[in-house]
Amino acid sequence: MAPSAISLDEVAHINHVALTEKDINIEHNVDDHVAFGGDDQWFYNPKTKRFDLSRGSTRKITLDADDGIRNHRGVMIDPDKTLLVVIDMQNYFVHPSFHDHSEGVKTVQPLISVIQKCRREGIQVCWLNWGIDDADLRAMPPAVTRGFNKALAHEKGHGWHVGLGARLASGERCLFRDTWNADIYDPLKEHVAPSDVHFHKARMSGLWSPELPMHRWLRASGKKTLLFAGVNTDQCLLGTLTDAYSWGWDCILISDCAATMTGLGAKEVCDYNIATNMGFVTESEVFCRAESF
């Protein structure tokens, strides 16, 4: 069954987060910095044109940016409270035996570099993937199953639009947990570490309900800044990022570590909307050359 309404414990937690006064040690001259948010604040320095998302952390990483559509010169983050979220980099979406997702394949090398940088900086990595079971299928909204069943109208064999839970040519069920097609894309497997966290999802977003394991884990972990990578930029990545933004996490898209097959300028529109509204956008080279201080 779908998750029930928010429990009283959840309401109490949300009220605690919203109403508890936080003692944040931030050494800023408020005359020179613009504050964003309520108790949980960002600061913007008009002189450097940088946003400080570190919330008084003693260790920071600065990600530079150009003025362009980014409209700022960079952001400072706390690596200890940052999480790299890699979305749907699974064999079913990226492996050539299922589909020619050439743009997705292009993200692999820059993503590996970003993961290695995260290891050096102590930034934890999260793998968020489709991983369903029969119970998920019974509770699946019609609109979600429709998106995976275009083969019913367009004869495309066992490829992209085979249908959630349907049998693939290999005999496996599409995007079912513990199958090879739902596993992390082969070239990335060797870059998974024991310290990484893994979450299944059964919607485009992995954060659509506060009762989801990832939602609960994030709240308990104290992570504040989420770096986003994966496929597809305008679908599952954007869906998760939008929910993260609405729930109050800082969102940073690593643009060249994200890809889509949509075309129609979809990726550019996502980059623009994220950079100017929901968060920030950077690139793998900028992230990898950033130094902590």
Automatic annotation (TrEMBL):
Name of a matching Pfam family? Isochorismatase
Superkingdom of this protein's organism: Eukaryota
Q: Would I find Hydrolase among this entry's keywords?
A: yes
Q: Note whether Cytoplasm occurs among the keywords.
A: no
Q: Which SUPFAM superfamilies match?
A: Isochorismatase-like hydrolases
Keyword set, alphabetical order: Hydrolase
InterPro entries reported for this sequence: Isochorismatase-like_dom, Isochorismatase-like_hydrls, Isochorismatase-like_sf
What region holds the Isochorismatase-like domain? 82-264
> Which CDD domains does the record match to this protein?
cysteine_hydrolases (cd00431)
A GO molecular function assigned to this protein is: hydrolase activity
Q: Which family does it belong to?
A: Belongs to the isochorismatase family.
Entry protein name = Isochorismatase-like domain-containing protein
Question: Could you tell me which species this protein originates from?
Answer: Cladosporium halotolerans
Organism lineage reads as: Eukaryota, Fungi, Dikarya, Ascomycota, Pezizomycotina
